[in-house]
Amino acid sequence: MAQIIVENLRKHFTVARRRRGTLGALVGVVRRDHKIVKALDGVSFSLEAGELVGYIGPNGAGKSTTVKVLSGILVPDEGRCEVSGRVPWRQRIEHVAHIGVVFGQRTQLWWDLPVVESFELLRDIYRVEPSDYRPRLEQLVAALDISTILDTPVRQLSLGQRMRCDVVAALLHAPGLLFLDEPTIGLDASAKLAVRKFIRELNEQRGTTVILTTHDMDDIEALCSRVVVIDRGKIFCDGDLEALRARVGVERRLTLELEHDAPLSIDGATVVSRNGGQVVLAFDPEQLSTAELIARVTEQHPVRDLLVEKSPIEEIVAKLYDDAQEDPA
Amino acid sequence: MRPYLAIFKARFRALLQYRAAAAAGLLTQVFWGFVRIMIFTAFYTSSTAPKPMALAELITYVWLTQAILRLLPWQLDGEIEQIIRDGNVAYELMRPVDVYGLWYARAFALRTAPVLLRSVPMLVPAYLLFGMGAPASPTTAVAFVLSVTAAAALSAALTTLLSVAMLVTISGRGLHTLTLSVVNLMSGAIVPLSLLPDWFQPTLEVLPFRGLLDTPIRIYLGHLPAEAIAGAIGHQLLWTILIAAAGRAVLRRALRNVVVHGG
Amino acid sequence: MSALEPLRLYGRYFATSIRSQLQYRASVVMLTIGHLLMTGVEFFGMWALFDRFGHLQQWRLAEVALLYGMANIAFAISEAVGRGFKAFGQMVRKGDFDRLLLRPRGTAFQVCAQHFELVRLGRLLQGLAVLGYAIVELGLLDAGSRLLLLLTAIIGGACVFTGLFILQATTAFWTVESLEIFATVTYGGVETTQYPMSIYRDGFRSVFTFVVPLVFVNYVPGLAILGRPQTIGPWWLAWISPLIGLAFLLLCLRLWRLGVRHYRSTGS
Questions:
Q1: Cβ distance of C104 and A97 shorter than 8 Å
Q2: What subunits touch chain C, counting only 3 or more CB pairs under 8 A?
Q3: In this predicted model, what pLDDT tens digit does every residue of C136-160 receive, in sequence order?
Q4: Where are the domains of chain B?
Q5: Rounded to a whole number, what is the distance in Å from the CA of C264 to chain A's nearest CA?
Q6: Domain coordinates of chain A in residue numbers?
Q7: Is C24 on the interface with B (CB under 8 A)?
Q8: Any residues with CB less than 8 A from the CB of B66 and at least 6 apart, and which?
Q9: CB count, 10 Å around CB of C258?
Q10: What CATH number belongs to A4-246?
Q11: Which CATH architecture group holds A251-310?
C-alpha cells in the first residue's frame, strides 16, 4: 500500500486586488476586487515508502499548496489525501508527529538561543524519549558536522550552518516522511553538496521518504529518481528523470568568450546568439558530450573563458506547457 | 520639496489602505473620550473644591485631546528603526537629500497624516452630539490651527530625536518608553495640566511637553489672553528648534562614526 | 503521558523565552522601568485628581487604589502570558503560524507558550505597589478571607484579559488589519475597571458586565473586599469570579478554534 495517496485534489483561493495610486487607495476603501485562483486543479499521484521525489514547478504553480495539504496545514476543497493511512488535516496532531518539514527560507530554530537549546525544546514538543533523543542527536550532529556550532546562537550562524541545523531539527523525532522546501537555496557549493549527500544517505539507509521542492535542477539530478512537475494547479509530468528529459529534451548551453571575433560553426551545436567575442551555443549532450564539444571549439579557436548551463526549471516547465498546448491529449 | 511631498503622500496612502483600522481607531478614540469625561464628571459633581476650569470646558478639552492625540510620539518610524537595527544606515547617506531633513519629514508625515484623517470625523460628532464647545473666538480658532501645526512640528522633532538616539544606544526602545511616560503626563494626555497639583505648574510651564497638546487646547478654550498666544506658540517653536538641533547634532556624530568605522 | 506534561513543556518554553530576552539585558531593564513609569504616571494622574477634589462620590483614594491595583495586576499577567496572542497578527502575516501547525501540539498552547514578555513586570510592579498601598491604608493585612477574595479576583481578571487577547488574535485569521477596536476592551478595560463602576452610565456599565465580564472580576469582588453592599447581584457573586473568568476564557478558546479552522481552509 502506498504511503501517500493523493486523488483529484482541488483548492482555490480568493485574492483581493489592490488599486494603484492615491485615488486607487481611496476607491479601495469602498470597494475591492476579488479574483479566484485555482491553486490545485485536480492533482493526483501516489508515493511508495522510501521514494525520493522531486516536486517541481514555477512559482505559483501549486507546489507549496500541495505541500501544505500533505503536511496538514491546509484543508483542500475536495479530493482525497492520505499519508500513512491518516488524513493530514483531520488528524493534524498525530500526522505532524510523524513528518518533518524544512523550509529553506525560514528557520524553525529560536533566533537568539544556542542551537542545542532549540533542539531540546523540540525534543519536548515532539515528546521524544531522552533515551532515543541522545543517540539520535549524536548521529545527526556527526552526519551533518555541526558539533562545533551547537552552542552558537542561531542568529550568528551562516546560511549553510543554519540550514544543516534546521535539517537536524526536522529529524529529531525520526519522521518517516520529510518535506524539503528549497533546502539548498542560497547555499555555497560545498554546503549544497553536504546537504545533498546527507539527504541521499537518509533516504537510502533509513528508508525515509523525501519530497523535495526546488528550483535547482542540480538538486533534482543529484537526488531524485522520480520527478513530478506541476504547473497552474495540474500535474504535467510524473515519471523518472529520464522520462522528463525525453519529454523536454535536455538542451544545454555553452557560453564562450573567444580571443578573437571569428566565425564559428560546430557540428551538433547551434549558435543561439553572438555578441563580439561572446558566443552562446545550444547542444544536446546525448548527441554530443560537453567535453567533445569543448574540444571541437578549442580546436578552431583560442578560448578565453567558458560556461556550461542547464536549462532552468522555468524553461523546462514552459517547454512542457507549450507542448501541452500544441498537443492537448 | 518634491521628495518631502512624496513622503507625505505615501504615508497617507498607507493609512488609507487600512480602512477597518481607521474606523476602529476612531471608535476607540470616541470610547476613550467618553470614559474620561465620565471620570472627570464624577469628580466634578462629587466635590465642592474650586475648579480650575468649568466642566463644559473640560469636556471640550477631552474631545480636542482625542482628536489630536495621534500627534504624540507614541510610535516611531518603523522603517527607520529597521534601517538602524540592520545597520543599513550608511546607505541613507547615499541619498541625494539631507538625512536629518528626510527623517524629519517622514516623522512629520507620520504625526500629521493620522490626525488629518481622524480629527474631522472625530470633531464633527463631538461638536454636534457630545457636548464639545466652539472656539472662544475666530482669532483663537486661527491661533489653534497654528498651534496644532507647531505641536506637530515639535512632535516630529521629538520623534526624530528618539529615532536618532537608537543609533547611539542599544536601549533605544527603553528610552522611547521612558520619554513617553513623561510625554503622556506632561502634555495633558492623562489629566488636563491645570488639574495637576499647583506645585507642579512652574515645571510644566517651562518644559516642552505641554506644547504637544495642552497649548493648542488652552488657546482653543480662550484660556490665554490674546497677547500671550504669540508667546505660547513661540514656546512651541523654540523647543522645536532646540530639539531638532539636538537631533541633528546626534545624527551627525553617529553618522561620522558609521563612516569612520565602516558601519 | 501525565496531565502535568503540558505544564512541564510550558515551563521549558518559559525558560527558553526568558533566556532569549536576557540576551538583551540592558534593553529589558530599561523597558521594564519604562513600563513601570508609563503605568506609574497613570496612577499619578489618579492621585492628582484625588489631591484636588478630595474624593470621588463616596470613594477615597485608597479604596479606588484597590480596584486599580487588582485591574493592573491582572492585566500585567495577561500581557506577559498572552504576548503571543497580542502580536499574533504579525505572526500570521509573516507566515510563521504554519510552523505551529506543523508541530504536534495545540495551536493556542504554542502561541501562548512561545513568548513570555518580561518587560510587563513593569506594570505588575506598579500594580503591586498600588495594591500594597491600598491594603495597608485600608487595614486589610490580617483580613484573611478578604485577601483570598482578592487573589481569586485577580486570577479571574487575568483569565478575562487573556481571553480578550485571544479574541483579538482570532480576528487576525480574517483580516490583516490590526484591530485597534480591541484596545477599547483591553486597555479600555483596565482604564475603566480601575475606577468604581458606579461612576459610569448604565449602557456603558452593561458592556463591561454582559459583553466583557470585567465587572465580575473587579468591581463585584472589590465591593466585597471593601465591605460595601453588593449592588450588582447576590453576595456570593464576589466569590465566583475565577469561574466567570474561566468560562469566558474557554469561550474565547472556542472562537479561536473556529479561526484556526478558517485559516486552514483559506490558507491566509
A1: yes
A2: A, B
A3: 999 888 878 899 999 999 999 999 9
A4: 2-261
A5: 5
A6: 4-246, 251-310
A7: yes
A8: B29, B30, B32, B33, B122, B126
A9: 11
A10: 3.40.50.300
A11: 2-Layer Sandwich (3.30)
